[in-house]
Amino acid sequence: MTLLTALPAPGSYRLAGTGRWCSVFAVTELANASIAAAGLELAQLISALNLAPVAPEVTVDQRLASLWFSCSLRPVGWELPSLWDPIAGNYQAADGWIRLHTNLPHHRRAALQVLGCEGNRSGAEAAVRHWQAGILEKEIVTAGGAAAAMRSRTDWLAHPQGSAVAAEPLIHWISPRKIQLRNRPEATADRPLAGLRVLDLTRVLAGPVSTRTLAGFGAEVLRIDPPGWDEPGVISDISLGKRMASLDLRSNEGRQRFETLLSNTDVLVHGYRPGVLDGLGYGADARRRIAPNAVEVTLDAYGWTGPWAQRRGFDSLVQMSAGIAETGRVQARTGNPHPLPVQALDHATGYLMAAAVLSALAAAAQGEEVPAARLSLARTAELLAGLQKYAEGLDLTKPADSDYNPEIENSGWGPGRRLAAPLGLDTSRMRWDRPASRCGSAPACWPQ
C-alpha cells in the first residue's frame, strides 16, 4: 500500500459529464482529480477491508464535480445569507491591491482598528488608499486580523514563504506509527465508512469539505465548535451529513467531554494553525496519548514551513498572495484582482484531505505504519498553478434544475434541493444520511 502523494492520473478513473469553469487556471481539472483522489483511495480501502473482491472502479461527473466547488444547496422558499461581511473584499492601496477578510468579528475589529475608520465600506476604501499594500497587510496580521496584498506569481515564488511552500510535498506524511483499527461490523461495500467515528475540528470550507465527503459514504461525523459559533452562508453547505455540537475547551467540563470524545475517535481532522492545539494542552503527544489509534489529518493556510507558517489565512487571501488573482487580472485585461470563479483551493484541499484519511485507513488495514497527514491551501495553489487545462465542455454559468436531486432536503434553515453527488463507485453511491444542520444543534457525544 502506497500512501497518497499526488493527484491521480486522468486515465485511472472514469470521467462523465461536460461543463467547466471559465478560468485561466485548470479549475475543473483540479475538481475532477481531487474528487477522484477521494474515490480511488476509498476503492483501495474497500479492497483492503475485503468488502469487495476487487477495488471498484471510480466515476467522476465533471459537471457536478465543478458545481460542487461552489454551493451545493438551493433553498426552496428562503434565501441563503451573504457569504461575505460588508467590509470584506479587495481594496486599492497607494501602490497596489489588498484583500481584507472580515467575516469573523475579531478579524473585522483588527482591520478597522488598524485603518482607524468607521465600520462601512466607503470609510475603509478611503483609509486603505493612504497605505502601501504590504505594510497594511503586515499591520493587520500583527493586530490579529487577516489580509493579503496582491502579488504576482514571480514575486510569490521569490518570497520566503512562497519558496518554502513550493518545496513542501502536496501531502506531508509525518510521525508514522502502528495503529489498531476498531472493528466496524456495519461497514459494507455500499457504505464502507459506516460506523467510522470522525471528530471534526475544522472551520469554513476545506476541512468541512473533507468530513462532508467522508459522511457521504457513511462515516459518523461529529463537528465541535466553540459555543455561539456560526458561519452564515457556509454552514448549510458544509454541515451536510454531520452532527454539529459545541464545547468550551477552556472549561473543565468541556475538556473532559472533549477528551472522552477523542479517546473514542477513529479519525481526527483539524484546521488549527501550528501551536494552537498545543496552547490548549492538546499537542501531538497529548493527542496520541488520548487517542493512540486515531488517524489524523490537518491543514493550515500558508504551509507548514517558512515565516508565514502560523499566519491566518483563507482561500481568497491565498489566491491574492500566491499570484492567482494577479495572473487572472493580466489574462482578463482588467485593472482589478481577478480571482478564480470559485474557492477552488478550499474545495480541492478538502477532497485531498478526505483522500489522505482513506489512504491512511487502508494502510492501517494492511498492518502498515500510519503517519499523520498535513496539507495547506498554499500548497494546493502551487498544484493548481502547475496543472494543464484539458477538460472539454461549455463554460458553466449556473446549475440547471436537472443538476439537483429531486428529493427535498429539510435542512436546519428550511427546505432545499441538493446537487446530485459528483462521485460514484461501482459498489457505492455517495449519499448523506443526515440533512445539513445548525451549529450546536446536537449533543457532544458519539451515537450509541
Q: Could you characterize the architecture of this molecule?
A:
The chain is an alpha/beta fold. It has a domain at 14-80 and 165-303 and 341-395 and 421-425: Rossmann fold (3-Layer(aba) Sandwich). It has helices at residues 27-48, 62-68, 105-115, 121-128, 133-142, 153-158, 160-166, 206-215, 235-238, 252-263, 276-279, 284-290, 315-321, 324-332, 344-365, 377-386; strands at 14-16, 58-61, 73-75, 89-92, 97-100, 147-149, 172-177, 197-201, 220-225, 242-246, 267-270, 295-300, 370-376, 409-410, 415-418, 423-425. Helix 1 links the parallel strand 1 (14-16) and strand 2. Helix 1 packs parallel to helix 15 (344-365). It comes from Leisingera methylohalidivorans DSM 14336.
List the helices and strands and how they pair.
Elements: E1 14-16, H1 27-48, E2 58-61, H2 62-68, E3 73-75, E4 89-92, E5 97-100, H3 105-115, H4 121-128, H5 133-142, E6 147-149, H6 153-158, H7 160-166, E7 172-177, E8 197-201, H8 206-215, E9 220-225, H9 235-238, E10 242-246, H10 252-263, E11 267-270, H11 276-279, H12 284-290, E12 295-300, H13 315-321, H14 324-332, H15 344-365, E13 370-376, H16 377-386, E14 409-410, E15 415-418, E16 423-425
Helix pairs in contact: 1-2, 1-15, 3-5, 8-15, 15-16
